[in-house]
Amino acid sequence: MNIATEAQVYTPEVKKKKKFAVGQAIKYIVVILVSLTMVLPFVWMLSASLKLETEIFGFPIKWIPETFRWENYKEVWTAVPFHIYYLNTLKIAVITTILVIINSSLAGYAFAKIKFPESNRLFFIYVATMMIPYQVMMIPQFMLMKQLGLVNSHWALIILGAFNPFGVFLFRQFFLSIPDELLEAARIDGLSEFGIYWRIILPLSKPAIATLVIFSFMHSWNDFLGPLIYLTSDHLYTLQLGIQHFITEYNTEYSLLMAAAVSAVVPTIIVYFLAQDHFIKGVANTGIKG
Amino acid sequence: MKPGKAVKSKAIRRNRITAYTFLLPNIIGFLVFIFVPVIASFCMSFTSWNGFGNIEFIGLDNYKQLLKDTNFKISFINSILFMLISVPITLLISVLIAIALNRGIRFVKVFRTAVFLPYVTATIAVAAVWQLIFNPSMGPINGTLMKLGIDSPPGWLSSPSWALISVSIVYIWHSVGYYMILFLAGLQNIPDYLYEAAELDGAGPITKFFHITLPSLSPVLFFTTIIGVINSFKVFDLIYVLTGGGPGRSTHVLVYDIYNTAFKQFEYGYASAMAYVLFLVILIISIIQFSGQKKWVNY
């Protein structure tokens, strides 16, 4: 009798555990399958970039090339002025990023820490512009840049990249989390508003700065439409436009195209691995609190 | 006026001056590069301007023309189809992955990195790779399919009926990581005690999902659908590299058409009208979503 009740009591527990294990297994299988789908194209790209042209499409897929053809990379970097594309992209990305940080942190500070009546309304207009598709302003912006003589120059891209409502949004949200008492104390000590921004707020904002640096850098590095519209001379091309060369002109040489793609992708992957946590926190914070 | 009030209004004025000094670079940039262009292209959409000569006002002619333009209609339908295919699947996959990664799993960081990786890489490079992967006669996908006994696998990017789906696949692959991170952040905001209390009441995993996880996640779901829809209308790079709008017009979408009309055919007036139609579509969808949110979003 006793044993029977005990058994009855325990059966659900056992069942639950079994169910739990099955659920857990399904979870791992799904996650592993999705992760593989995400990563395999990269592996394929890397392997194709080191193969002989004829070897690329062999089936079954050979993940490790017969012989590693490092020459592919050498050819990519000499066939077209790839190093110039690299330097151009780096120049645009770095200058844009610096300007975005200065610009957005100043505005973010005004919105978060200075009380003026139309603050919220103005901020709302700012954020609302993020919803306007780029196509709506694309043509007049181009006309304007033409008037300013900045078409076919990196400065058009840098200037347009420097005004980014997203950056203002990110800094404002971050600054709001800094207690006002800290600023009041500094004001009493006679620090000017700019002094507070420069000596107190900015040093406290390294996480926000890091997030925006990564975002802005990746954004400029990966931008395609902007350079496509504004850059016409080959020596001004960015990497993303440069890769186009391999697609249109060298389209029989897939291994070179893959080597070019790997070369273009590596810097952002490195940046991502170095600053992964900031990046993910940045996506999460700006996304959720919208 | 009471003295206290005067002091207050003086303080407001001082604050305002400081605030605008801080905002100055941004406000100038905003006015010159966003506000003025948005207005200018609205005005331009009522003209037949091609960049040279006089600007001729033609009223609503551009918009009337758009209604009759079959190519525009195709792009419009393609954009909507692309959204309808890619947004629900992207959100579904990313929410499932986020829930799987949220608790009780090991190597979270490894999986998270893997899923997020495509998002940080340039679409151009990524598109180049997928073009080869999708190669109908020699690519690894069709190679695998044929090995599995499927004699005539789809032509993917080169088949008019599969091209839009193929682009959607690449797009979903590229953006799942972003939405996963948003969902993960949302899940981490759900307090543990809710689950503990539910467990005490004897709730199973399904009950917990429908009564705790889903309602708590509804603001994030709302936000991600809005962002997801807007982003899906913006896809340009992928289409430019993968298909160039083809085969035929099967992957022509609005943004691709706007680019071509403006910078290949130099019909600035007409392109502006198209851009405003795009804007209107996004606006209407967003308004519908916002007005529907009260019914299902819990704050």
Automatic annotation (TrEMBL), chain A:
It comes from the Bacteria. It is found in: Cell membrane. Gene3D superfamilies: MetI-like. InterPro entries: MetI-like (IPR000515), MetI-like_sf (IPR035906). One of its GO terms (biological process) is transmembrane transport. Residues 86-275 form the ABC transmembrane type-1 domain. This is Carbohydrate ABC transporter permease. It comes from Neobacillus rhizophilus. The lineage of its organism: Bacteria, Bacillati, Bacillota, Bacilli, Bacillales.
Automatic annotation (TrEMBL), chain B:
Its main location: membrane. It comes from the Bacteria. It is a multi-pass membrane protein. The keyword Transmembrane applies. Keywords: Cell membrane, Membrane, Transmembrane, Transmembrane helix, Transport. It is found in: Cell membrane. GO terms for cellular component: plasma membrane. GO terms for biological process: transmembrane transport. Residues 76-289 form the ABC transmembrane type-1 domain. The chain crosses the membrane at residues 20-42, 76-101, 113-133, 162-185, 268-290. Belongs to the binding-protein-dependent transport system permease family. This is Sugar ABC transporter permease. It comes from Neobacillus rhizophilus. The lineage of its organism: Bacteria, Bacillati, Bacillota, Bacilli, Bacillales.
